[in-house]
Amino acid sequence: MILGQTILATLAYHDIFNYPLTYGEIDKYLIGKRASFDNLAQPLELLIKEKKINQKHKFFFLKSHSKIVDLRIQRAKYSKSKFKRAQFFARILKIIPTIKLVAISGALAMENSHKNDDIDLVIVSSQGTIWTTRFLANILLWPYKRNPSSQKIANRACLNVFIDESALKIRPPNLYLAHEICQMKPLWDRDGTYSRFIQANSWVKKYLPNWQPNRVTSAKLQVPSYKSNQFITYHLALITERTLRSFQLAYMKSKITTEKIGKHQLFFHPQDTEKWVMGKYQIRLKRLSGN
Question: According to a count of CB atoms within 10 Å of the terminal CB, is the N or C end of the chain lower?
Fold first, then answer.
């Protein structure tokens, strides 16, 4: 795929979200092809000359889609206040010692939130505590959490991804998940968890080879020593985890739709967003190729 086609494919993917890209963002999220920053200028100029794309202010976008520039600017304003809200949620969650990473995902991670959007959070737990962590996180954020049955979701916390630190690799590798991982914005982490998460998902470079991870200052978790009661402490934690797992699964049994409930990873998505996004992407690619 020549560089011009790659740029078109990159703009097409983000067009799904009404999200025009700056020059630097095209470089950062260039799909499937490594290219130097300076080498993008000429193909961009050519694409504009051929009237395949347009530019407004600092943003590039597909032909005749200039309205998405104003949308992005407006959504960036909404996202600013939502990001502060997400930081507030993260400070509350920091109380839970089994949480190793809190990050935002979805539209907010790209500063592309609608006014009434909720706030998607990704949480990584310490090994063997995913259900305990989820239970405690839901309790602490209960006053601020999104209620699936309520129409009022603006600025509510949506705890839709939990990952055990023993299984950080996200599968299956594909373009949609690569974007979701690369767009994540860590709010804080412990013990270098974000760095380990990115290393475990190094496959994203196949799809977004120019992307580089965020720089994150990692805190070190101070764990008290319980050597004399280590056996008891371990088994109490194990019993608690099994009990809370059974309780939560029983509660969710009648509500599960497209959620993915695994041993070490929990994805609570009421809709199959990946299928929808990739369908829209293929439609745009066909239009651009003239087929």
Answer: C
